[in-house]
Structures are given as structure tokens and as C-alpha cells.
């Protein structure tokens, strides 16, 4: 635990799960298609809820969704009643159906020779966008690029991929660096984490 360092305002908390997510994952570039599918799924689950709620249930989500193996998840349509009965996860049928649908789209991409990693990162030319925000309040909820990506993702069959979910995903996956410039993670990322 790095208690003597400055973090983004939203991560200045005693909550270890939130601190660990901020310190080790959020904004750091991910090129693993399974991990990217997990992040997209968690952002879908987070819509309308607190991120803390999702983090608290992340282990249960991993268990319910075979560690976010999209090859397995694409075949889970018949397991929706079982998922809806699982009190350890967020039981929102629309979100569960979207995650299963998205796994099918990602599997289809893979069948056609394109990884989910390559699909997502091509939108930013394979390069992380470096933002320079001094305060968390300056960070947008979405932007024009996320709106464009959202439109393309929906066209390509993705569900629950609105501009806010897409922008949150971009932040989580490190497609954009939205850490505050005074945050120690921002400095690590810019230096080439």
C-alpha cells in the first residue's frame, strides 16, 4: 500500500480494493482480449451503480462468467436463469444478456482473425491518448471519440456500448490516461509503465 503518495481524488480512500484497482489497473494499457472483455463487462455492470459495488462483486463475476473467457461466456444464454438467481452478482437481465451477446461478437471477431484487443486499440491508432487533467472534476464522462467508437461497436453488434460505458472502458483499459497529473500513476504511465 502506497499511503505516502498522491493518487487521483477518487482513489484517496481507505478502501483497499479501490486503491489497488487505481494503482495497478485503471489507466494502464491492457492488450489482453480476455482482460479487455472483463473490463467492458464490468463497465456494463457499473452503469447506474457505484464502482465500489462492482469491485466488491468482481470475484463473484469471475466465477459466474468463467473468468471472463468469452469463448465460454458466448454459450451462456441458457444459464441466464441461473445467473439471475445468483445473489453474489448484479442481477440485471439486460446487462447479463449484453455481456453474453458481446462475448459472441468478440468470438466472431476472433473467428475472422481479429482479436478484441486489435479491434479496440485500432480506434486510437494503437497509442494511448495522454490527457492532462489537474482535477477529477475536469475529466469528462464521455467525448467525441467515445461516441464514434460506440456507434461503430453498436453497428458491429455490441450491446450496452453507449458513449459513457465506452469512455469508462477506454479509461479502464488505458486507451486514455485520465489520471490526474499530480497522481503518481500518471507519472508512471507517462514514463512508460
Structural commentary:
This protein is mostly helical and 193 residues long. 52% of the residues lie in helices and 2% in strands. The protein contains eleven helices and two strands; from the N terminus they run H-H-H-H-H-H-H-H-E-H-H-E-H. It has a two-stranded parallel sheet. Helix 2 (33-46) packs antiparallel against helix 7 (93-111), helix 2 packs across helix 10 and helix 9 packs across helix 10 (163-173). The longest helix is centred in the middle third of the chain and has 19 residues, at 93-111. The model has no long low-confidence stretch (mean pLDDT 95).
Backbone shape:
globular
Q: Class, according to the CATH hierarchy?
A: Mainly Alpha
Instruction: Give the topology string: H per helix, E per strand.
Output: HHHHHHHHEHHEH
Instruction: List the domain count as a whole number.
Output: 1
CATH architecture: Orthogonal Bundle
The assembly state of the depicted protein chains is: single chain
CATH topology: Endonuclease III, domain 1
Give the strand order of the largest sheet, numbering strands 1, 2, ... along the chain.
1-2
Helix content: 40-55%
Helix segment tally? 11
CATH 4th-level superfamily: Hypothetical protein, domain 2
As a whole number of angstroms, the C-alpha radius of gyration is 16 Å
SSE class: mainly alpha
Please state the average pLDDT score.
95
Quote the distance from N terminus to C terminus.
18 Å
Unreliable sequence segments: none
% residues in beta strands:
under 5%
Q: Biggest sheet, in brief?
A: 2 strands, parallel
Number of strands: 2
Binding site for Zn(2+): 8, 22, 179, 183
GO biological process, one term: base-excision repair
Keywords: Metal-binding, Zinc
GO molecular function, one term: metal ion binding
Amino acid at each position: 500500500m502506497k499511503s505516502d503518495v498522491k493518487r487521483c481524488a477518487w482513489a484517496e480512500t481507505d478502501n483497499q480494493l479501490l486503491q489497488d484497482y487505481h494503482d495497478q489497473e485503471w489507466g494502464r494499457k491492457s492488450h489482453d482480449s480476455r482482460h479487455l472483455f472483463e473490463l467492458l463487462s464490468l463497465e456494463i455492470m457499473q452503469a447506474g451503480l457505484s464502482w465500489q459495488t462492482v469491485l466488491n462483486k468482481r470475484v463473484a463475476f469471475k466465477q459466474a462468467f468463467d473468468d471472463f473467457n468469452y469463448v465460454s461466456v458466448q454459450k451462456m444464454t441458457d444459464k441466464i436463469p441461473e445467473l439471475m438467481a445468483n445473489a453474489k452478482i448484479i442481477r440485471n437481465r439486460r446487462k447479463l444478456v449484453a455481456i453474453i451477446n458481446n462475448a459472441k461478437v468478440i468470438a466472431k471477431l476472433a473467428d475472422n482473425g481479429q482479436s478484441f484487443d486489435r479491434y479496440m486499440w485500432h480506434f486510437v491508432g494503437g497509442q494511448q491518448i495522454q490527457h492532462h487533467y489537474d482535477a477529477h472534476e475536469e475529466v469528462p464522462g464521455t467525448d467525441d471519440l467515445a461516441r464514434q467508437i460506440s456507434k461503430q461497436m453498436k453497428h458491429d453488434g455490441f450491446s450496452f456500448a453507449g458513449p459513457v460505458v465506452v469512455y469508462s472502458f477506454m479509461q479502464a483499459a488505458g486507451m486514455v490516461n485520465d489520471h490526474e497529473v499530480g497522481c503518481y500513476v500518471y507519472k508512471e504511465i507517462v514514463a512508460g509503465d
